[in-house]
Amino acid sequence: MAKKKTWNQNEIKKENKQLILTTVINKSPISRAQIANHTGLNKATVSSLVSDLLNESLLFEAGLGASNGGRPPVMLYFNKIAGYAVGINLGVNFISGILTDLDGNIIIEKYISFLNLSYNKIINKIDDIIDYLISNRPISPYGIVGIGIGIPGIVTNSGIVHNAPNLEWKNKDLYTHLKNKYNIPIIIQNEANAGVYGEQKHGVGKNKKNVIYVSIGVGIGIGIIINGNLLRGNNGFLGESGHMTIDYNGLKCTCGSNGCWELYASEKYIYNNIDKYSLNIPSNTDDILSILIRLATKNEKDALEIFNVIGDNIGVGVNNIINTFDPSMIIIGNKISTAKEWIKPALFNRVKKSEWIQERNLDIKFSNLDYYSPALGMSSFVIDNFLNIKSI
């Protein structure tokens, strides 16, 4: 019985300590007395656990608060530079890597584009970016607290890349490679799940409880938060909406089906149809989207038409998502959001054609984080893991 009591006491102490840390993160600057009032913990418990957190370099003291007649309280802050997290957004033709502090602020970033590389060559590039971010990190008590990578495909709950069709990956154990190389916590997620979390923590979906992030690059995936919870599916496979059929007599997709949404509403449409337009695009470019954006700024007719078609087709899939999940917000993100100026009119026009959808209390927005959302989401997962905070 005594052992059980000790175990319970240890668990209670751990939970109370976590409650105090979370309170300081969300409410700082805050005094010990304010923590006690906010959490309901007694002042002695707060004082003891705050001392532990100060010794662990997760909190620091700075400045005095307002006095209520007695001695002014010393204010507490979260030490966001106690450690750093690496977040990676792996696209089909690019890698975006960031180093953030424990509050999700980007300290260093590295971006590369590529075209048609093998698994091993992509992994080498991921390693190069991680090495660059780690080697340039500021000095801190905890150093790098983990690495998170968002993958454009199906990732199992154990971190295995089960299938990433647009990369032609199947059953790739990226987790073991990274764990053996860096020997720190590794988190691998579907990049759309990472994107919706990045938006909820840092973007236009901040603090929203019913939000869907539509990640559009070469493929399309969606991340779904309903009632404050991230939906993952039975095996972690939820969100592959780029492969919903919008034309059952349509083109053959890499997934094996016909007429998949991403064939008509992503960068894949550009790659598959660019020869039909009178545009001077180099055949070996690894970033046609950026070239089209430059042409669209000059009112190039065919570039505008491509974005109009993509916007309309995005709207077709968005209507299906709205009718299925009834969210309060849909966020269009990843690389396609860099062309929002030319895509938005056709997308909104398509959605407005549905009187039923117009009756709903719904915001459709483009990400203000561009392609950073998944990397920020992965960084947030890593930070939550380090701080023992439950992610959504």
What would you say this structure looks like, in words?
By secondary structure, this protein is an alpha/beta fold. The protein has 3 domains: 2-78, Orthogonal Bundle (Arc Repressor Mutant, subunit A); 84-196 and 374-387, Nucleotidyltransferase, domain 5, CATH 3.30.420.40; 206-370, Nucleotidyltransferase, domain 5 (2-Layer Sandwich). Helices cover 42% and strands 21% of the residues. The protein has helices spanning 2-27, 32-39, 43-55, 119-135, 174-182, 191-202, 262-265, 267-273, 288-297, 301-325, 340-352, 355-358, 373-387, and strands at 59-64, 74-78, 84-90, 94-101, 106-113, 144-151, 154-155, 161-164, 169-172, 186-190, 211-216, 220-226, 229-230, 329-333, 363-366. A 5-stranded mixed beta sheet has the order 5-4-3-6-10, sandwiched between helices. The chain has a 5-stranded mixed beta sheet with strand order 13-12-11-14-15, sandwiched between helices. Helix 1 packs across helix 3. The radius of gyration is 23 Å and the shape is globular. The two termini are 35 Å apart. The relative contact order is 0.12.
Strand-helix topology:
Elements: H1 2-27, H2 32-39, H3 43-55, E1 59-64, E2 74-78, E3 84-90, E4 94-101, E5 106-113, H4 119-135, E6 144-151, E7 154-155, E8 161-164, E9 169-172, H5 174-182, E10 186-190, H6 191-202, E11 211-216, E12 220-226, E13 229-230, H7 262-265, H8 267-273, H9 288-297, H10 301-325, E14 329-333, H11 340-352, H12 355-358, E15 363-366, H13 373-387
Parallel strand pairs: 3-6, 6-10, 11-14, 14-15
Antiparallel strand pairs: 1-2, 3-4, 4-5, 7-8, 8-9, 11-12, 12-13
Helix pairs in contact: 1-3, 2-3, 6-13, 9-10, 10-11
